[in-house]
Design the sequence.
């Protein structure tokens, strides 16, 4: 998704920033850490460093080895930077963000959106955080359920079969069997997981 | 670049010195803004992704109106949330 947005953004002079949450690194993933990382990426593509950022750096670089910014300061700089140019912000695995940070982070995202309405935010996560996202972002959220499509599973299997490390053990009937059975099994698995009993739904 | 000019910096006027400082500061400022580098993780995902997986999402009405909203379209929902259980491929969609 990020590559796709980058390709499209390049054509319309927009910019893309991303952040990947990771359960294993959740202690370091504070709102200040995430906002700082996004700001860095948005600034990277600018030809000129915004004066507000240069000034903030000059003011701090001589103290405590370059004293960091506070969340409110980063937010202000993010709002200024993202209002200069269309920005896409992508956040992966928001559910892996520490619970104590998540509400704050969504609130901060909401403030960025308030200041720069052209900014688009793409978020992925597990289903249980949807109500929280809706609440914090005041309902301005479109949601899409992601499940493995049959075509995607077949594409993935083809790519794995093409790089099979033991090709001698493969023959055309085994390959045909794999391409028939696995997509079917996966589709059934996700239909069962998503559909309440008695309400069969065809997978897309 | 600053080293290059350090011997004759007295010959530059104030504006030039300011521009030179700002241009030279960029890597330092970026490192100061954040020590994190998401492009490493991004590259890792990119290497493992199979081309065109999840392309269907780009064709949905939800994605299109979210995306076109950034170019002044009708959508007023600036956030697109793609949800699914672990392992369904959320991170790897095209």
Sequence:
């Amino acid at each position: 998704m990020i590559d796709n947005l980058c390709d499209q953004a390049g054509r319309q002079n927009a910019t893309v920033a991303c952040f990947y949450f990771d359960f294993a690194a959740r202690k370091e993933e504070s709102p200040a850490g995430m906002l700082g990382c996004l700001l860095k990426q948005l600034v990277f593509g600018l030809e000129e460093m915004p004066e507000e950022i240069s000034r903030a750096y000059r003011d701090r670089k001589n103290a405590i080895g370059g004293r960091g910014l506070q969340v409110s300061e980063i937010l202000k700089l993010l709002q200024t930077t993202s209002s200069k140019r269309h920005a896409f912000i992508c956040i992966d695995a928001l559910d892996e963000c520490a619970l104590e940070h998540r509400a704050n982070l969504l609130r901060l995202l909401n403030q960025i959106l308030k200041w720069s309405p052209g900014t688009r935010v793409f978020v992925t996560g597990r289903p249980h955080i949807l109500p929280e996202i809706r609440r914090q972002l005041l309902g301005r959220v479109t949601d899409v359920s992601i499940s493995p499509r049959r075509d995607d599973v077949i594409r993935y299997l083809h790519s794995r079969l093409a790089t099979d490390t033991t090709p001698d053990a493969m023959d055309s009937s085994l390959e045909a069997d794999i391409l028939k059975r696995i997509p079917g099994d996966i589709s059934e698995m996700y239909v069962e997981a998503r559909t309440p009993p008695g309400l069969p739904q065809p997978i897309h | 670049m600053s080293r290059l000019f350090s011997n004759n910096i007295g010959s530059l006027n104030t504006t030039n010195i300011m521009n030179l400082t700002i241009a030279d500061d960029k890597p330092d400022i970026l490192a100061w803004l954040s020590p994190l580098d998401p492009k490493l993780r991004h590259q890792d995902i990119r290497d493992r992704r199979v081309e065109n997986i999840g392309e269907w999402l780009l064709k949905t009405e939800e994605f299109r109106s979210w995306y076109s909203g950034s170019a002044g379209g009708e959508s007023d929902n600036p956030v697109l949330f793609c949800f699914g259980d672990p392992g369904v491929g959320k991170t790897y969609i095209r």
